[in-house]
Amino acid sequence: MVNRGKTDWERALAAAVAGKRLGLEEGVALFHCPDLTLLGQAASIVRRRFHPEKVVTFIIDRNINYTNVCICRCRFCAFYRDPDHPEAYVLSQEEIFQKIEETIAAGGTQILMQGGLHPDLPFEFYLDLLREIKKRYNIHIHSFSAPEIYHFSRISGLSIEEVLHRLKDAGLDSIPGGGAEILDNRVRHAISPRKISWEQWMEVMTTAHRLGMKTTATMMFGSLETVEERVLHLLRIREVQDETGGFTAFIPWTFQPGNTELEEQFAGVDSGGFDYLRTLAISRLLLDNIPNIQASWVTQGAKMAQVSLAFGANDFGSTMLEENVVRATGVCYRVPMAEIIRCIKDAGYRPAQRDTYYRIIRYFD
Is residue 21 part of a domain? Predict the structure, then answer.
């Protein structure tokens, strides 16, 4: 007697390898594939269609968290502080400038500024910061997640489009995909009830794309979502990419429960390496219109990021000279550029530094 479940995932895998577009049922079926290596092999075939050259890229940049004050108070977040908390902070422009200068000195080409939704900082604070950075430095500003931009709209009374217009005019170059978590409102209500809906997240992205700004897309998985909701997240990103072509890359990472409101609920539960590699490979198989899939050494470490190059990833992410949000959960990986280059070479690929738009800056032979 034929095992129906096995038939479903085998058919889905064969369809993906043949270059056919997969739907919700096929995506869910892939999560029932019992052989992780088969998923990796299929994802590698699809990866080679996008990137036939044996090159793996990375970017030199820095995450600058300009404030940890946030009124959103997400249940999965260990980084935020209430406005009156003794550890609450807002970086001065001078402190941010120093971090940028250190980034440029290290060969960096990009800064990623993100922070909490501060109730008391006016919209002009962000516009002035962008102008002052651009006045001083030749660096790409890849900053402000969709929840932050929606927050700017609320505090300013301006539309999302007008907010993005003004940010762009002040110096914002592109937008990171943070705040996506899982693009399903059931999950969002459970883990971040005060955060914007998935439709609002997508509104920011599509508006940015329409204005000519590129963005990334992300997924934080392994919290309270079902496999179906995980697949639906991927399909919603793919649908928008069909319409706009504005996503440069997709970056999935695993939920880290340490020091969060959900820590006790997830005690002893680990969305570990197997689930990470499986989800990464399936992302590559489903996202047939997004060219780049990024590894996440920030949550998985350098060795797992290296393994991910055999599961569909073509980019090692950032040297990330500074990272504070994941570190607040107790997970603290540090991977210097030399280690990134070595990991890429040892996996059989040619390392290359890229810019935000995935243009090669230099190779490391």
Answer: no
CA distance between the termini of the chain? 53
How many domains in the chain? Answer: 1
CATH number (domain holding residue 140)? 3.20.20.70
Q: Measuring CA to CA, which residue among 60, 140, 62, 135 is closest to residue 93?
A: 135
pLDDT digits (tens, 9 = 90+) for 208-257: 999 999 999 999 998 899 999 999 999 999 999 999 999 999 999 988 76
pLDDT, tens digit, 9 for 90 and up, residues 274-292: 999 999 999 999 999 999 9
